Amino acid sequence: MLSMVHMTASSAMRSFWRRAANDCSQSGADIYKIAISKGRGPRDPINNGLTKLCRRWYPSAMIIEETMKAVVIDHYGGPEVQSLCDVPIPSPASGEVRVEVHASTVGRTDTATLRAHPFFARVMTGLFRPKMRTLGMDFAGKVDAVGDGVTAYQIGDRVFGISTDRFGSHAEYLCVPQNGAIARIPGDLPFDQAVVGEGAWYAHGTTKLLSEGKRCLIYGASGAIGTAAVQLAKANGAYVVAVVGSRHLALAESLGADRLVNYETEDFTAISDKFDLVLDAVGKTSWFACKPLLGDNAVYASTDLGPGWSNILLGAWFGITGSKRVRIPFPEDAPGFIRYLASLMAKGKFHGIFDQSYSLEETVEAFRYVETGQKTGIVVVKVR
Questions:
Q1: 112-145: per-residue pLDDT in tens?
Q2: pTM of the prediction?
Q3: Is the per-residue pLDDT at 199 higher than 80?
Q4: Does residue 252 share a domain with residue 134?
Q5: Same-domain pairing of 119 and 73
Q6: pLDDT at site 324
Q7: For residue 41, is pLDDT > 50?
Q8: 75 burial type by CB count under 10 A (0-12 exposed, 13-18 middle, 19+ buried)
Q9: Residue 311 pLDDT grade (very low, low, confident, very high; cuts 50, 70, 90)
């Protein structure tokens, strides 16, 4: 008797689901759309069940999930290899939050990754084609879904941060770990003014060496890294000399630089001063040129490989000898730094300097502009 009841119930359920799947047909074609409600995704049990159902009864069915706009790359090259596509909206895994992205940026890391420069970077980014289909490290937006076990954030929280491992912020949605490089946006700061993490994170790789009374010179104090470095160095109590061109003198002064040097009219390597840190924030000088500026046990740091890869070679040599006098500022502890940066922003000790803004549809143009090397501060991509 129980067996008959079970068979009858199973038959009724199969009939119900078969009719539900039939309702998905379009003019008799084997294409069925399973609409995924907002907040769900392909890992959701309900969606998994519907997907398996259609694939069982209609093997040729194409399952179309809810999609988002994202700038996608399939191979290395110039800005033109990117295209705006519809891709599935990601679902947050356990311990992750999904961010509805409102703003992102385009920086030197994005342009270098797109072109696989330097070549050996392919070891991390993909030997023959990029592992990351969507670039963009900085993000700011709202938490719109959370995975299991998330307690640090709630839906609706306004957040910013950097996606250092996955990138992916040149898209309408992004999933990040709750314990990753993410923090709440201080106060009512607009989203397009909260995308400040990437350049500051790189700058922190060397400004963290500074403390009260230390002296530093920052060459190229007008870009995303340079403007962040001036503010972070001052927050540590250091004396800062900013080397910039004529049109950026007022900017460097407003950031708190103690002395300004106009490289268009003055040879900055000839100033009669010694420093504990010389940071080339644009990768256009060298340790050999800056050697007269370096005091005892001082550090020269550059954000680029240098002429003939000299910075890499010298960094390796000084590392072997134990002096570490030449460094490429590889940053560390992104989560801790983003929380520290949020605290500086809340205290009014750090703010972003912004150049041009582009829409998501104009991301290719944003890349072209950054590659001119003439940007001031941060180039923003307004996703929404």
A1: 999 998 777 787 888 889 999 999 999 999 999 9
A2: 0.81
A3: yes
A4: no
A5: yes
A6: 62
A7: no
A8: exposed
A9: low
pLDDT tens, position by position, 253-282: 999 999 999 999 999 999 989 999 999 999
Cα distances from 314 to residues 126, 216, 294, 309, in angstroms, run 27, 20, 15, 9
Q: Is 27 left (phi over 0), alpha (psi -120 to 50) or beta?
A: left
158, 40: one domain: no
Structure tokens at 21: 């799947």
- What is the extent of the structural domain holding 12? 2-57
Total tally of structural domains belonging to the chain: 3
Q: Would you call the peptide bond into 118 cis, given omega within 30 degrees of 0 as the criterion?
A: yes
- With cut-offs at 50, 70 and 90, classify the pLDDT of residue 67: very high
Other beta carbons within 10 Å of 189: 17
Residues 215 and 294 grouped into a single domain: yes
CATH value at residue 274 = 3.40.50.720
Exposure class string for 111-125: b at 16+ Cβ within 10 A, else e? bebbbbeeeeebeeb
Q: Determine the Cα–Cα distance for residues 224 and 202; give it in Å rounded to an integer.
A: 9
Strand 96-106 relative to strand 138-146, pairing: antiparallel
**The tokens of 130 are what?**
């990029």
- Do 176 and 139 sit in the same domain of this protein? yes
Of residues 307 and 321, the one with the higher pLDDT is 307
Is residue 80 domain-shared with residue 127, that is, in the same domain?
yes
Confidence of residue 304 (pLDDT cuts 50, 70, 90): confident
What's the pLDDT tens digit per position in 222-240?
999 999 999 999 999 999 9
